[in-house]
Write a structure and sequence with these properties.
Structural class: alpha+beta
Number of strands: 9
Shape: globular
Family: Belongs to the aldolase class II family.
Largest sheet: 7 strands, mixed
Order of helices and strands: HEEEHEHHEHEEHHEEH
GO molecular function: actin filament binding
InterPro entries: Aldolase-II_Adducin_sf, Aldolase_II/adducin_N, Aldolase_II/adducin_N_sf
CATH topology: L-fuculose-1-phosphate Aldolase
CATH architecture: 3-Layer(aba) Sandwich
Domain Class II aldolase/adducin N-terminal: 27-209
CATH superfamily: Class II aldolase/adducin N-terminal domain
Distance between the termini: 36 Å
Pfam family, one: Aldolase_II
Helix content: 25-40%
Length: 265
């Protein structure tokens, strides 16, 4: 019987092979992968977080399909163009997941305000994606996403280029996309914004699942929904000039550095 062959970890882009801005984006994106794994948001080698390469609107960074999230580093992230073609020289095996390419390239091509796209298949997120009601704005976390949530119907595995146009049309100019029967997606101007939107969304989903499990009527607060959405940008620097999440994401990177800074390699 054939024995499984070890996946050869790729040697990719080094700091002296790209701009300082690209390297910083690589470090932040690698941190997002490691943090997602530590928070229990990863799913083996599947799912993706992508970031646009600064100064190169038609290039974005994506994980090498086959690596687990805790193996992602700044240097082994792959740079591809909007056609899915690899940009740069890499030593070792390189693979781009088809579904990851279809979903993320569609958004990066259509939304020039988006610097990072994050997609997850968490239990709570998938559970809410299957509910007819979708995300209910009945807790403080979900209320902060009022007016920012869009929905895209399930079309099967996202491997067909034809789905791109429909996905983008459904997403519009929102920051959160509920992929029906599939999972959750956030888009931000920066890695930090996309990550913190996902943190907020995931927490809101978990609260909703817990609340529904009690079998009691849910108590909403529709009279304050609009006010909460308006107040979010002013709350204690959570939203910075670089978008939602600047301060908390930097604190998470410092926390990650204390645990394991190898993502920076």
């Amino acid at each position: 019987m054939n024995q499984p062959r070890d996946f050869e970890l790729p040697v990719g882009i080094r700091p002296d092979q790209c701009s300082p801005e690209e390297w910083q984006t690589r470090v932040e994106l690698a941190a997002a992968y490691r943090l997602a794994d530590r928070f229990g948001w990863s799913m083996l080698i599947f799912n993706h977080i992508t970031a646009r390469v600064p100064g190169k609107d038609d290039h974005f960074l994506i994980n090498n399909f086959g690596l687990m999230y805790d193996e992602i580093t700044a240097s082994n992230l792959l740079k591809i163009d909007l056609d899915g073609k690899l940009v740069g020289d890499y030593v070792g095996e390189t693979r781009v997941n088809r579904a990851g390419y279809v979903i993320h390239s569609a958004i990066h091509a259509a939304r020039h305000d988006v610097g990072c796209v994050m997609h997850t298949h968490t239990v709570a997120g998938e559970a809410i994606s299957t509910c007819a009601t979708g995300l209910l704005h009945v807790n403080q976390d979900s209320m902060q996403l009022t007016g920012q949530v869009a929905y895209h119907e399930f079309e099967g595995l996202a491997v067909d280029d034809g789905e791109k146009q429909r996905l983008v049309a459904d997403f519009g100019d929102k920051k959160v996309l509920v992929l029906r029967n599939h999972g959750m997606l956030t888009a931000g101007s920066s890695v930090g914004e996309a990550f913190m939107l996902m943190w907020l969304l995931e927490h809101a989903c978990r609260v909703q699942v817990a609340a529904l499990s009690m079998g009691q009527p849910l108590h909403g607060a529709p009279e304050v929904l609009g006010r909460i959405a308006e107040l979010v940008p002013t709350q204690q620097g959570i939203i910075t000039p670089t978008g939602l999440g600047g301060l908390p994401f930097r604190s998470l990177m410092r926390w990650l550095d204390r645990q394991d800074s190898s993502y920076r390699n």
